[in-house]
Automatic annotation (TrEMBL):
Residues 151-296 form the BioF2-like acetyltransferase domain. SUPFAM superfamilies: Acyl-CoA N-acyltransferases (Nat). It holds the Pfam family Acetyltransf_6. This is BioF2-like acetyltransferase domain-containing protein. Gene3D superfamilies: 3.40.630.30. Signal peptide: none annotated.
């Protein structure tokens, strides 16, 4: 008879070297955990720059069988949110442990998540596809795509020729170490946040410091952020900073020169990364959740994720469950308005530790929403 499951929570800094090796082994044994967001070094970087990362572990017969990295208190969230584009329990394929069981007794009432893997078997599950590509060679990948992608590629190549004629020769620098390029990308992204009224996660020192440290780790690090840059002549046109473990590249922070938008520089850069994937060692390029817009042309091997809340028996858990039920029940009448509000608040709460800062950010968000609604 197997020993009882032993569940324990401790700060990430208290994990032993053996715990870390076992964590890596769990991830390697489960294809569903391919994302670099599930690598222990990612959560180590989150803890170094944001603090407060807790690790709940489950052991059986002394062997580590599950890991859940999280932050927060009564209302918990995945470690690294809102930057963690995928969130789940790190466990083997034969281990079935839900988050409620892992967090019982931790003074946690609810665990809000925004991108949890799902098999979409539950019709009530609000699952969305991810724009994920498995690439074993650029030519083979392109040949496997449908007519819609081929038309898209033809248009992209036409824009490439036009940009070379009007601006300068197309050139891509992979794994760039150029500080000016990095800073230009961050500036473009922040300007885009301001333009669209979205919450500027890069204004938070913990977030910006996390990104910078992962990029500064360099191409030899087992977990890092690779920066790829597109130039037209000597002019920087686009950049993509992505989290990678060397095999999976997760496109993370993408930006482009708005004056060059007509040439689709971001798409030109993506096509260049597909061409360079073999040389870079990338077998998967992941554009994250959602297949809207240009992403629909690239989602060749999609998976599904869902957002929601897991509640633990308590007053806080009861309140969270009530809101989640209302969000689902009202979805047919309000669309995803309640879900957007919840996700926006979770994003703000992860970056703003003070109530005053959260209130200002939410007030600004609602103001932007109403202004855009009136102008629509």
């Amino acid at each position: 008879m197997a020993d009882a499951l032993h569940i324990d929570t401790r700060p990430l800094s208290a994990l032993s070297d053996q715990d870390r090796r076992d964590w890596i082994a769990l991830r390697a044994a489960n294809p569903d955990l391919e994302s670099p967001y599930h690598h222990p070094d990612y959560h180590g970087a989150v803890d170094a720059h944001q603090g407060g990362v807790q690790i709940t572990t489950a052991r059986q017969n002394g062997q580590l069988v599950a890991v859940l990295p999280w932050q927060g208190g009564r209302f918990a969230r995945p470690s690294g949110a809102p930057l963690s584009d995928y969130q789940t329990v790190i466990a083997g394929t034969d281990t079935r442990l839900d988050i409620t069981r892992l967090l019982q007794g931790q003074k946690v009432g609810a665990f809000h998540y925004s991108a949890m893997p799902t098999d979409r078997s539950d019709p009530a599950d609000l699952a969305i596809e991810t724009a994920r590509m498995e690439i074993t060679g650029a030519d083979a990948w392109r040949e496997s795509r449908d007519g819609s992608y081929r038309r898209h590629l033809k248009s992209t190549r036409r824009r490439t020729r036009k940009s070379e004629e009007e601006v300068g020769p197309r050139r891509i620098v992979t794994q760039s170490r150029d500080v000016d390029a990095y800073q230009s990308l961050m500036r473009w992204k922040r300007e885009k946040f301001a333009e669209t009224g979205k919450f500027d996660v890069l204004a938070n020192p913990g977030t910006s410091g996390l990104l910078r440290s992962l990029w500064e780790a360099g191409p030899a690090a087992p977990l890092r952020a690779d920066l790829h840059v597109l130039y037209f002549g000597d002019r920087m046109a686009a950049a993509d900073l992505g989290l990678t473990d060397g095999s999976v590249f997760h496109s993370w922070i993408v930006g482009y020169d708005p004056e060059l938008m007509a040439f689709a520089p971001g798409i030109q850069l993506l096509e260049g990364l597909i061409d360079a994937s073999d040389a870079l060692g990338y077998s998967v390029i992941d554009l994250g959740s959602g297949t809207d817009g240009y992403k629909r042309h690239y989602a060749s091997h999609p998976r599904h994720v869902t957002s929601g809340v897991v509640t633990v028996p308590s007053a806080a858990g009861w309140m969270a469950a009530l809101y989640d039920r209302a969000e689902r029940d009202l979805r047919s009448r309000t669309g995803d308005a309640l879900g957007k509000a919840r996700r926006r608040y979770s994003q703000i709460a992860a970056c703003e530790t003070e109530l005053a800062g959260r209130t200002r950010a939410m007030t600004h968000a609602f103001g932007q929403h109403f202004r855009s609604s009136r102008s629509a």
